[in-house]
Amino acid sequence: MSDDILYSVHNLSVDYKTRGGAVRAVDNVSLDIRRGEILGLVGESGCGKSTFGKALLRLHDGPASIPEGELWFDGRDLMKLSINEMPAIRGAELGMVFQDPMTSLNPVQSIMEHLTETIQAHEPKVSNAAARARAEELVERLGIRHERLKEYPHQMSGGMRQRVMISLALALRAKLVIADEPTTSLDVIVEAKFLDLLKELREEFGLTILLITHNIGVVAEICDRVAVMYAAKMVEVGTAEEVFAQPKHPYTQGLLKSVPNINMGEGELYKMGGEPPSLLHPPTGCRFHPRCPAAMEICSRIEPTFESVAGDHMAACWLYQKQTDSQASTRKKANLG
Amino acid sequence: MDNLKEQLPNTPPEGTTWEVELKKVGFVRRLLMGRHWYGADWWFVVISSIAVLAFIIVAIAPGLFAPYSPDALVGPRFLAPGAYAELSVLVVPQDSKVNQLEDLAVPEGADRPQIAVVQDVPTSGDLNTQAQAIDQELKNQPAGLRLRPIIDRYASLDEALQAVVEGKDIAAVIQTTEYKNSHAQFPTLREAASLTGEKVAGGFILGTNDIGQDIFSRMLWGTRIALIIGFSSSLLSLFLGVPLGLLAGFMGGAFDRLLSLVMDSLYAFPGLILAIAITAVLGPSMLNIIIAIAVLYIPTYYRIVRGQTLTVKEEVYIEAARSIGARRWDILWRYIFPNVIPSVAIIFSVNVADAILTGAGLSFLGLGLPPTMADWGIDLARGQRFIQSAWWMITFPGLAILLVVLSFTLMGEGLTEIFNPKLRDR
Question: How far apart are the C-alpha atoms of A20 and B234, rounded to whole Å?
Fold first, then answer.
């Protein structure tokens, strides 16, 4: 693994147990997150992007499990650690910001308690006073007056709470922050400020950010690279320029066409046909083929591999596959065998 | 409602806020209908909290408020509330040397003293009893004195006292109140001593019971026992039910299922029946009552806390806490517990009321405390036997139970509505 890759996910799968059988919410996904980048992870609702984000922290419990995959973070495989070792890494090295800032803070704890608790949970030797001083310094940097630290979550606005969530991740200088739709419930002005803040923090703290979102505009605004998921599968990864200028996968193309634009006339907005597939019974072959405008005969039979299209630009689509039909068939048989 | 609209010329349109309506009604109606309006709930909490506080103060120091000890036989039996305790008093001429009944004793064979009493007044009975007791003592002494008074009965009080003034009788035995009313007419007479000596002649505002104990004092002392039972059994079930509910909700799995099964079976029993069964096994004592009632209410806490834990566990901030590295114990103790505890505080208050009621019920059935204790349930059971002749014996302990239970319940309900505004529209 090269040094500039902070988090390397190999063949990660996440299963949910349901009454109808196991649902594979993330299926055999590989992704490299590079040091200091902002990587956007986009996809429809329910495509598994949030599950993927949580899996990076091994936050799964209850019905969810990770049957296979390797999570190489900063030189070690998190899957090889016992689950009791994970709390030491969560927060300290890996942080997470959740979608709804209104409910992601404990309503009966003041902001100060949140911060000092986080600091002291990982560094028990830090005194209360020192932890408080660090917390004050940190929130001032994020644009919250330190007097407000003694307030409770309900006294703060959504934007402030989201900044508090970020500060929880920064309190211990997490290397990677996974932001799961952090701006979905914020209005556009607060959203823009928050995105600016993320960019600044990236520069200042050398932070790496995985930004999970369904908002293409946000991705275009701040992301260096973009990963696109569809029905539990990774379908395309590339730099933001590449993906936006020359989307390879038909799903990405459709997704970009579906973004409303103020210059569009009435009825011009593209609507992708069909429905997202049920993950309980996913389509055979390429999962996008029932909705794909460029579907070929092979698409419904054999799954395309995820491979390079041009340099680092990767896609999983039969339009760009180097393997032939017969090679794929043999591979498939070998897999089955 | 339609009637009301016709009567009021400027009825505001449908859906106006409570403020308008609240101004139109008087204080009493506002109190009675307070629950219908937002903002009036605090009355219930304030009034019931004051009552609860008063009960607690009385329970801590009943001696400060109660005029008598709860066990002392302080007055006549079956004295009605407010009635003055009638005691027989010895009335003698001003210049007489007699100060108490013993002074009337004379040597054997001498003229027996003549004492005046009023007909159909129980003082002659007192006189006989006392005189016989003194006579018995004197018989055993060497002085040879005897006290065997001749009782002269007169038709009225005035006649009896006149006889003493005239010297026909050496003394009169009459009731204290009667003497107080008429002693101005007989300036030459004085009150020597109460015939019964030490006995208190004060009034009993709530009357006395079948053995002459003061009902008011017993009621105040009973507060202590009621609150001890109510609080300690509720606290006991809280300390057992809350952790069990937290653990079951948090851990889930087989532990949760097994515990829920046990708790639900406990919950399915009718409350008093289960308490009776437990006390029957454990035997009657204060501690056993507390244990029996505590067992009864553990499922209440368990169910509420478990349900709340299950809800809170799925909140985003719990996941957020895990994402910053909080450990399981921290999540349970610092995140789930503080978010669950407000609902526990509310059921605690209602629970205390319930426990007092059950405790009194057990005592009433004779399964609770030893019958010598000043307990409302015991007093109820005792008063029930005399319900036709002495209504006050069962009424006042009953009222006390009602008041305590009502104030605790109202406080709990009021707190619920304040803390949990979603329930306000029920």
Answer: 45
Grouping H, G, I as helix, E, B as strand and the rest as coil, residue B197 is: coil
Instruction: Provide DSSP, A68-124.
Output: EEEEEETTEEGGGS-GGGHHHHBTTTEEEE-S-TTTSS-TTS-HHHHHHHHHHHH-T
Q: Which of A329-333, B201-205, B261-265 has the highest mean pLDDT?
A: B261-265
B338: which chain A residues are within 8 Å (Cβ-Cβ)?
Answer: 106, 108-109
The pLDDT tens digits for B286-326 are: 899 999 999 999 999 999 999 999 999 888 888 888 888 88
Nearest to A181 by CA among A45, A272, A66: A45
What the block records as the tokens of B97 is 């040397």
Across the interface, do A98 and B335 touch by the CB < 8 Å criterion? no
Residue A1 has pLDDT above 50, yes or no: no
Q: Is B264 on the interface with A (CB under 8 A)?
A: no
Per DSSP, B337 falls in state: H
| B343 in contact with A, Cβ within 8 Å | no
DSSP bridge pairs for B154: B118
Average pLDDT of the residues in A137-158: 88
Residue B152 has pLDDT above 70, yes or no: yes
- DSSP-derived secondary structure letter, A187: -
CA-nearest residue of chain B to A54? B323
Chain B residues whose beta carbon lies within 8 Å of the beta carbon of residue A63? none
Instruction: Report d(CA B101, CA B86) in Å as an integer.
Output: 18
Residue of B312, B324, B328, B336 to mutate for A, most A C-beta atoms under 10 A: B324
Model pLDDT, residue B424: 44
Question: What is the identity of the amino acid at A53?
Answer: G
Looking at beta carbons, which pairs linking B283-289 to residues 24 or more positions away fall under 8 Å? B284/B367, B284/B368, B284/B369, B284/B370, B285/B369, B285/B370, B286/B225, B286/B228, B286/B229, B286/B369, B289/B229, B289/B233, B289/B359, B289/B362, B289/B363, B289/B368, B289/B369
- Select from A87, A106, A169 the Cβ nearest to the Cβ of B317: A106
Say which of A96, A104, A121 has its CB closest to residue B330: A121
> Measured between beta carbons, which residues in chain B are less than 8 angstroms from residue A210?
none
The minimal CB distance from A59 to the residues B315, B322, B339 is found for: B322
Chain A partners of B339 at a C-beta cutoff of 8 Å?
106-108
Residue A95 touches partner B, C-beta closer than 8 Å: yes
| CB of A90 less than 8 A from some CB of B | yes
CA dist., res. B324 & res. A95, Å (int)? 6
Check CB contact under 8 Å for B324 and A59. no
**What burial class does residue A231 get, using C-beta atoms within 10 Å of its C-beta: 0-12 exposed, 13-18 middle, 19+ buried?**
buried
Three-state DSSP state, B1? coil
Q: Please give the Cα distance from B382 to B372 (Å, whole number).
A: 11
- List Cβ neighbours of A50 (8 Å cut-off, separation of 6 or more): A99, A180, A181, A212
Cβ atoms of A26 and A55 closer than 8 Å: yes
State pTM to two decimals. 0.73
- Tell me which residue of B68, B32, B66 sits closest to B400, measured CA to CA: B66
HEC letters along B28-86: HHHHHCHHHCCCCHHHHHHHHHHHHHHHHHHHHCHHHHCCCCCCCCCCCCCCCCCCECC
Q: In chain B, which among 294-323 make CB contacts under 8 A with chain A?
A: 315-317, 319-323
The alpha carbon of residue A4 is apart from the nearest alpha carbon of chain B, in Å, by: 24
What's the rounded Cα separation, in Å, for the pair B407 and B51?
Answer: 6
CB pairs below 8 Å between A and B: how many?
70
Query: Which chain A residue has its CA at the smallest distance from B339's CA?
Result: A108
3-state helix, strand and coil shares in percent for chain A, rounded to the nearest 5: 35, 25, 40
A83 to chain B, any CB pair closer than 8 A? The answer is no
Residue bearing tokens 């500039």: A4
Which two tokens mark B337? Answer: 């517990």
